[in-house]
Design brief:
Layout (H helix, E strand, L loop, with lengths): L3 H14 L7 H14 L5 H10 L3 H11 L13 H10 L17
Amino acid sequence: GVTDAELGLGKANFTRSIPGLFALPPAIEGVATELFAMGLPLDHYEKIVAAVNGVTAEQAKKAAERAIVKEDFVVVLVGDRAKFEAALKEKNLGEVTFLNKDGTPAK
């Protein structure tokens, strides 16, 4: 699951991006148009920030379990294979494929 620190970072990244939606007049016009077109209240973004900040680690875990299809999940790691291969295999996450930088299978 997600740690409280990771969740805090995710919340902060999302909520701190909201003011950028109102940075310039064309952006404000776009937000106003979206609110009107979607029938959203004027305090929509304020409510979103409150909702995001209220999410617990357990709620985030349950949402991820519903949304992420493990059979289709792909993780791409880039770096020194020797530094993470053993730990990755220990996790027993499924098939691990190593590729060279040109995309050919590594030996």
